[in-house]
Write a structure and sequence with these properties.
Layout (H helix, E strand, L loop, with lengths): L2 H22 L17 H15 L5 E5 L5 E5 L13 H25 L8 H10 L10 H27 L3 H11 L1 E3 L3 E3 L4 E3 L4 H5 L2 H14 L5 H13 L6 H9 L7 H10 L3 H4 L20 H13 L7 H7 L5 H10 L10 H15 L4 H12 L3 H8 L5 H11 L2 H16 L8 H18 L8 H11 L8 H7 L3 H6 L2 H12 L6 E8 L4 E9 L6 H11 L2 E11 L3 E10 L8 H16 L25 E5 L7 E8 L4 H11 L2 E11 L2 E10 L8 H16 L9
Antiparallel strand pairs: 1-2, 3-4, 4-5, 6-7, 7-9, 8-9, 8-12, 10-11, 11-13, 12-13
Length: 725
């Protein structure tokens, strides 16, 4: 047979097999595979035999072998007839022979049970055969899950051998090797990277196959340059590693974790390492997930396949133009933590207990293996522990319920973690099976993301803001462009515009810009529509330190309950604070004398020392049940803002808590540039945008850790301990 005809026939066989695999599943790890036609099935063994024949002119013989119960079927001849071929090594011939015995025995059993030709290994058949063959439940795994791990072990071996033959059979193999050797660039003395492949230098093959770090480096080069590993090199590497697996070194682990930070297709690289059985050595927790069945009606793939696919789904967002692509690109330096979380998020399955909680323990064990710092370790553990949370809310709850969103925002803690959890949720769902992720689910997730972002970062959502800015501009149509008021309006933060009506904005900013340097105004008004009191404080070029803390103290001295507060620094010269409070001392509209009293108290605190604030005794107040009190959560986000640090506090509300938090920030020399303080039922959500006293962003990690601990201690110490300075 002419060589050209051989290559043509090989391509035809491969193309036909790929078309068949599309109908029966393009991965080994299907939960209900077809024993004959799915990837790694009997059809792949037949393909391997014919591809080998086209290379060597020898067709592997078949002969009778006994079944376990004494019956006989056609199977691979146990005698060694072919000692060596160009298409298959002796080791691969042995592997295919063992796999064919297992798969044909299983297929015959399916036929006998059905009384007809039946090749699909359904859930019912899996359970029946597992029981018949003595696979029993233990340590959190069902007997059927143990059986299917064995099944996937055989089909995986078939798929790997066949894949190597397909790569050799496809056109251009010799040209690829020749081009790589002639025009490729030498890398690290062991590798050659060309336009069509990355190859191992011939005299370095032994050095590479015996060194874990060099193997990871080979996979890394293939990933970085997005070219395949030269097929004959890959086959030699796979066979060498099967005989002797090199030890894992610290250098290999660090090389491995560095892959997660690169903007390149990570999924294929992880699959390469998984195929070599090296992924589970670099990440020991992954060994348990290999071929682990998810015996439910939701997932389509095994645990290991699902995790790898989830990583690929997230990486695909690099080129996504929609809102998810924007979210993904804002992940930034947390990319490696998110991708690592996706790789391990379901590894808790197959153990006793909740798989998310088991997974969190796995995350705690994994973090030090790869040298993650405390902050990264905490994020990794949270993502694994709560990887189902966002999906449950978005698809199973009414996200118009603010109490649900608040609880979720409290647990997430920052826009950064929200972004990570959003991408993780999408990737997790998309990796369940074909067509599971759709536009409807994307819209539901987007709605939850944006509503939660309103709690965590009010400036992020700008619906209606542009219309308000246009209305304010129309109110100032007669003003000169040089007027400071026009300048302030042009630079107003979107959160400021969103919160207040245009007429009020113009009135307050007019009074603010008319102030002399060092001047201030205080406006206290009754709000009939909400039965609350609004307190507005404006200052121009003030030398007063700790303004936010002082205002909070003045309000607390009048026994006022702060519902919400906004503080904004405008044009580096003006400061305007808005507080919404409830006065429990009065029923109905507060009299003018009371409003004047509040104004004087705030003015006194701005000009003098902050007074001690004692807690009021309220015999009608309900006692907080200890079991219902959630521990405080303090999150420091130093990535979302370019010129400031966002510190968010979630805690049970109590008298004087806001004062204690603002005082703690002041005492640690943090200046509040802007803030969003909200009280919902018995919980507070405080988001402080802070800088140091010099107006610079705080980058010192030790200092950030110190303020986080201090705020957490204050928020969780009880109402009495922070009632006075």
């Amino acid at each position: 047979m002419a060589q050209r005809s051989r290559r043509k026939m090989a391509r035809m066989l491969v193309a036909a097999r790929r078309e068949e695999a599309k109908k029966y599943g393009e991965t080994v790890y299907l939960l209900q595979p077809n024993v004959k036609r799915s990837v790694g099935g009997i059809r792949d063994i037949q393909l391997a035999r014919w591809l080998s024949f086209l290379e060597s002119d020898r067709l592997l013989p078949l002969g009778p072998l006994p079944l376990p119960d004494g019956e006989s079927v056609i199977s691979v001849d146990g005698r060694r007839v072919i000692k060596r071929t160009r298409g298959l090594s002796d080791a691969d011939v042995d592997v295919l022979g063992q796999c064919l015995v297992f798969l044909r025995d299983l297929r015959v059993e399916l036929h006998i049970q059905a009384g007809r030709g039946s090749d699909e290994l359904t859930r019912e058949e899996q359970v029946r055969i597992a029981d018949k063959r003595g696979f029993y439940a233990d340590a959190g795994m069902l007997g059927v899950e143990h059986f299917m791990q064995v099944y996937f072990g055989y089909t995986r071996e078939v798929a790997q051998v066949t894949r190597g033959l397909i790569q050799q059979a496809e056109g251009g193999r010799r040209l690829r090797s020749w081009m790589t050797g002639l025009f490729g660039n030498r890398v690290d003395g062991c590798f050659v990277v060309g336009q069509m492949a990355v190859a191992i230098v011939p005299n370095a093959l032994d050095a590479v196959t015996s060194d874990m770090e060099r193997i990871v480096r080979l996979v890394e080069l293939s990933m970085l340059y997005e070219v395949p590993i030269e097929p004959t090199n890959w086959t030699a590497l796979r066979q060498a590693v099967a005989r002797f697996s090199p030890p894992v070194t610290e250098e290999a682990r660090q090389r491995f974790i560095s892959l997660f930070s690169v903007v390149a297709p990570l999924g294929p690289a992880l699959r390469r390492l998984h195929e070599l059985r090296l992924l589970e050595q670099l990440l020991p927790a992954f060994a348990h997930a290999r071929g682990l069945l998810q015996f439910n009606n939701f997932h389509k793939y095994t645990v290991d396949e699902h995790c790898l696919l989830a990583v690929e789904k997230a990486s695909e967002l690099d080129t996504e133009a929609g809102w998810l692509g924007d979210v993904w690109r804002h992940v930034g330096r947390r990319r490696r933590i998110l991708l690592l979380a996706l790789l391990i998020h379901d590894l808790g399955k197959g153990y006793e207990g909740d798989h998310s909680e088991v997974g969190a323990q796995i995350a705690r064990d994994v973090a030090p293996q790869f040298g993650l710092d405390d902050g990264e370790s905490e994020v990794l553990e949270f993502l694994v522990l709560r990887h189902l949370l966002m999906a449950e809310l978005a698809f199973r709850r009414n996200v118009d319920d603010d109490s649900l969103i608040l609880t979720f925002a409290r647990e997430v803690g920052s826009p950064e973690i929200l972004r990570l959890l959003t991408v993780l949720t999408m990737a997790d769902i998309a990796a369940v099976g074909p067509g599971v992720w759709n536009q409807w689910k994307a819209e539901l997730l987007s709605d939850l993301y944006n509503r939660t972002l309103q709690f965590l970062d009010p400036d992020a959502n700008d619906r209606g803001v542009d219309l308000k800015r246009m209305e304010i501009s129309s109110l100032l149509a007669d003003a000169d462009d040089s007027d400071p008021l026009v300048r302030l309006v042009a630079g107003l933060p979107r959160g400021f515009l969103r919160s207040y009506e245009p007429k009020r904005v113009v009135e307050e900013l007019t009074e603010l810009t008319n102030l002399p340097r060092g001047g201030q105004f205080i406006a206290v008004q009754w709000q009939t529509d909400t039965s609350t009191i609004s307190v507005t404080v404006g200052l121009r070029d003030s030398s007063i330190s700790g303004v936010f803390h002082r205002i909070a103290a003045g309000l607390a001295s009048q026994r006022l309950e702060i519902l919400s507060a906004d503080i904004h620094t405008l044009d580096d010269e003006y400061l305007i604070d808005h507080f919404c409070v409830i006065d429990r001392d009065f029923v109905g509209p507060a009299p003018e004398g009371r409003l004047s009293e509040i104004s004087k108290a705030v003015e006194s605190c701005l000009e003098n020392e902050v007074p001690s604030i004692r807690r009021r005794w309220n015999p009608l107040a309900s006692e907080i049940q200890a079991a219902a009190v959630l521990p405080p959560r303090v999150q420091v986000d130093n990535d979302s803002s370019v010129d400031g640090t966002i510190i968010e506090v979630f805690a049970e509300d109590s008298d004087g808590l806001l004062l204690a938090l603002s005082r703690t920030l002041y005492e640690h020399q943090f200046s509040v540039r802007s803030a969003k303080i909200s009280t919902y039922l018995d919980q507070i959500v405080d988001a402080f945008h802070v800088v140091d006293f010099d107006g610079a962003k705080v980058e010192d990690s030790e200092r950030l850790a110190t303020i986080r601990r201090a705020l957490k201690e204050v928020a969780g110490s009880g109402v009495d301990s922070h009632a006075s300075p």
